Amino acid sequence: MTTLTKSTALDRRPEGNQWEALVSNLKSLLDQAEFDLINTHFDAANRRHPAWSIINAHDLSVHYERQHKDYVTNQAISLIQGEPTGDQWLKNAKKRIVQTNDFEECASALAETRCYGALLGCGFEVQPVPTSKLPTPDFEIEINGERGVVEVATKLEHDEQTKRAEQIAAGATPPGVERSSVQLPNAKMDITISVVHPFGEPDPDKKGDTTLTNAISRICSVKQKESQVIEGRFAILWIDFRDLSGWPSMLELDETVPLTVDNVGILHSGACWYAFYGWKGAPVLETDYSHSQISTPMAHFGRFHPGAPKTSRYSAVALSLAEGTVLFENSKAPTLFGDGVRGALTKLPYFNLGRSIANWQDGDVDRTNALSVSMIEAICKNRGL
Description:
Blueprint: H1 32-40, H2 52-55, H3 68-80, H4 86-98, H5 103-121, E1 125-128, E2 139-143, E3 146-154, H6 159-169, E4 178-183, E5 188-193, H7 211-220, E6 234-240, E7 259-261, E8 267-269, H8 271-277, E9 283-287, E10 293-297, E11 316-321, E12 324-329, H9 339-345, H10 364-383
Parallel strand pairs: 3-6, 6-11
Antiparallel strand pairs: 1-2, 2-3, 4-5, 7-8, 9-10, 11-12
Helix pairs in contact: 3-5, 4-5, 7-8
């Protein structure tokens, strides 16, 4: 019998207490006071510190569902420490990670750490770019003579959703929240039910505003100014969704494909695919509150669509999701990257080849998306949507 296995430089998980044998991981960078602070902290929205799951990944006596990000972050730190300036970079990153005043800042530092380590694991030479008063990318990278830049963006839930969670944690009951209690023989169980909209709650009075169209619009507009791009070099936008809404798996890999259908025949448009390749007027398919199929015309072009009023300068976007990383190339970018870069990126941890859209051969991006558009239009016509 033949056994097939798959691994990457960042996908070799030590078992049990073997984590303690790692020379470097996030826990090894912390003193006891910092470790205790992260371990006990909850913010006003009752969220644990973003680094909590990472520092406890090795300790099997702490019971929670491990995520890929926990292992990837720890192993990234080990790779970064092997770099000439790695210790200093990690020292600066640790300051941002350990603090408890700014959830987003901590999540951003962790996302940059994962990106840095992932790029090293792919074989890139990586040079962190010092911050300045002018916009700068996070990293300059090079492989086989091709030079480019990477800008990391951390996508968290919408501010209004965080404020709502803070109200609930404080005991308030905003509209749409249900509270109940169940008295057990030896305890009382309080239950709170709230609908979560990570990308913002749709406005029922605004035409075309739905849960999915909000998600598409918000993903499309990440780092919209593109001021970190350097002329003449390829540029990658790295969007990390792994701390989205406290439930990173809320944005699933299916959101990177044009269209899926569930077990009762309801069609669902992929938020990420539409955000980059959708077109103005495209049918955005989802369910309403009664679980009926609805279709809403897309109000704008996707970021990489040829019809977009502004040509994106990013050569590609890397979508870092809970269960994998997906690459979308921009065939119209002013600077494209070659096969060496493209091949190296397939070594990213948990890279999802089947859902990535790239010019494996010249013209593949345009051909793939033309087929997707044809499928969407034909299915909508056949169903009368």
